Amino acid sequence: MQEKGTISIHTENIFPIIKKFLYSDTEIFLRELVSNAVDATQKIKRLASLGQYNGELGDLRVEIAFDEKAKTITISDNGLGMTAEEIKKYINQIAFSGATEFVEKFKEAKDANEIIGRFGLGFYSAFMVADKVEIETLSYQDGAEPAHWTCDGSTEFEITEGTLAERGTEITLHINAESEEFLSKHRLQEILDKYCRFLPVPIVFGKKTESVEDGVDEEGKPKYNDVEVDNVINNTSPIWTKAPSELKDEDYLAFYKELYPFSEDPLFWIHLNVDYPFNLTGVLYFPKLKKDFEIQRNKIKLFSRQVFITDEVKDIVPEFLMLLHGVIDSPDIPLNVSRSFLQADSNVKKINSYITKKVADKLAELFKNDRKGYEEKWTDIGLFVKYGMVSEDKFYDKAKDFVLLTNTAKENFTLTEYKDKVAPVQTDKDGQLVYIYTNDPSKQDAFIQSANKKGYDVLLMDSPIDTHFISHLEQKLEKTSLKRVDADVADKLIKKDDAPEHVLTEEQGTKVKAIFDKAINRPAYKVELESLNPDELPVTVTMDEFMRRMKDMAAMGGGMGFYGNMPDNYKVVINGNHKLVSRILQDENEEVQLQLAKQAFDLALLSQGLLTGAELTEFVNRSVNLI
Ligand code: ADP
Description:
Distance between the termini: 112 Å
Bound molecules: adenosine-5'-diphosphate
CATH architecture of the largest domain: 2-Layer Sandwich
Strand order of the largest sheet: 1-6-5-4-7-3-2-8-9
Number of domains: 4
Shape: elongated
Structural class: alpha+beta
C-alpha cells in the first residue's frame, strides 16, 4: 500500500503562514500534540466503557522522548490509534471551515493560540518546529493495519504501510534548524511542567533508574538492584477534579504549595463545581494580601480539561477577583477567540457572576460562623472586600453585610453596628451622619485626640483602596458623609447648633485676624477666626475635605488634571475663645504679638509634620529665645 496525495486545503502556502505568524508561541506545539495523545487515550477508555472495545486497555499513558543526534521529538500514546482512512479524514483535510477564511483572518490574530484553536490546527502546529512530521499508528479496530504518514511541510503527504505492532499512535517531529532549542531535556521539561502538569493520564518523559530492595546479601543486609522506572511528570488527579467531601484541609494546602511553592499559606479557599448551565471546576484561594496587592495579581491558572491554557484570566474572572490564586478549569470558556468577543460571551458572563457569588457566599459564611477568626483575617480580606465593593455592584450588595469598619482603637464594626454606635453623637444639625476617619494616625494624632475628646469615633482608613472606598460608601450610605479628621477643627467637623459664644468683640476679632495675617504671611494659608471651645488648640491648620480628596484622586491617577495642579491650600483656624488669643490682643508690643502668633501657628504646623527646613530652624531659635 502506498498512496500520495495533496492535503486538501485551498491555499497552497499554509505552512509558511503558520510558521511565520505563530512564531512567538512555538512551544505550544507540544501542548497540542500531547493533548491529542491524551484525548486518544480518553477515547479508547470511553469506547471500552461503552462496550465498543473489548481488548486490553493496558496502562494508558503518553510518552515524550527526544533524540539530540537524530534531532527528533517523539510523542507516543496507547490511545485509539487511526486507520489510514482516518488519517486521510482527520489529518489531511485540515479541520477548519475553509483555508480562505483562515488566510483572511490570520492577519488580525494576536497569537498562535487564537489561530490554532479557532481553526482546529492543533496537529499542524507541529510544523512550527519541524521540517518533517511522521505518524505511525495502529487503530484499535478489529483487523486494522498499521499506517505510516509523512509530510515535509509542503501540501504533499505520503501514506504507506506502518510498523506499529501495538495499538496507539507515535508522532515523530524532525526538528527544524531554528527550533533546536527544543532538543533539550531542560526546555522540554519546562514546557511539560507548564502545560501538562495536571493532565488526566500519566505523562512519561524520558526514563530514570531507581534502586529497589531485592533480597538480602551474605551479611543479611538488604540488597538493591537498579531497575528502570517511568518518570511520570504529572499529577493525574489534581484536587479540583475531586469531590470536596473527599478532601481535607491538608490536601488544599498541599496543592497550594504545589502551585506556589514560595507563598505563605492561604487564608481559606473555595471549591468551585458547576455543571449547569456551564461546566466549571476549580479551587480559588485567598492569599495573604497584606498591602502589596499588585504583585499578587495574575496568579489564577486557567485549564481546559486539565490542559493548562493561560494564566491571563483577565476577561474570565472579574477584575477584583484577580487577587485570588488557584485554578479554574472549564471546557466552556471559548479560549481561542478575541478578547472583545470573550467579554461579550454569555458563558463568560455567567461564569463571572457565578464566581462572584461563590466568593461572597464564602465570606458571608466565614463571617457568620466565626466572627473572631474573620476579624483576625480582616487586614488581608478587607482590602479585597473593599476592592470588590467598589468595582462590582452585585458584590457590594452582598458584602455590605460583612464588610468591617475598623476604628483607631482597633475595634471592628459592620456598617449597621457602626451607624448605631455613632449616630447619637455624630449626627449634624441637618440630620446628616458624619463618619470621621484618619489615613495616618500618627501624623493626625492631635486631631484624633480632639475628636475623641468631643466623643467622636475615628475610623482607620489607611489602605490604598480606602480613598475609593470612602467615596463609594458616601454614594451608597444614606445621609452619611465621611470627613478626614483634619478636614476641620473638631468643633466644626460636625455642624451643630451649640457653637460656643464669641468672647471677642467684632473689632477685637478683626484685630486678631490682622495680627495673624501679618505673622503668617503665606498665600497658601488662609486665616479664619472661629469661636471654638476654649480648651481646643489656639491655632489649627486644616485642609478642606473636598479639595484634599480631589488632589488625592488626581495623585493616584498620576498627578495630572486640574486638581492635580492646584497648589495645597490650607485654612488656619484661630480659636477666638482661647486664652492665648486674648493674651496676644492685650500685649502692647506689636513685635511680641507677632512673635506669639507665629509661635502658635508653627506649633500647629509642627503637630502635623508640616514644619520643615528653614522654617523649623527658625521655630527652634524663636522657642529658645522665648524660653
Ligand atoms: P483537533 O484536535 O482540534 O480536532 P487536530 O489537528 O489536533 O485537531 O487533530 C485532528 C484529528 O486527528 C483529531 O481530532 C483526531 O481525530 C486525530 N488525531 C490527532 N492526534 C491523534 C492521536 N494521537 N491519536 C488518535 N487520533 C489523533
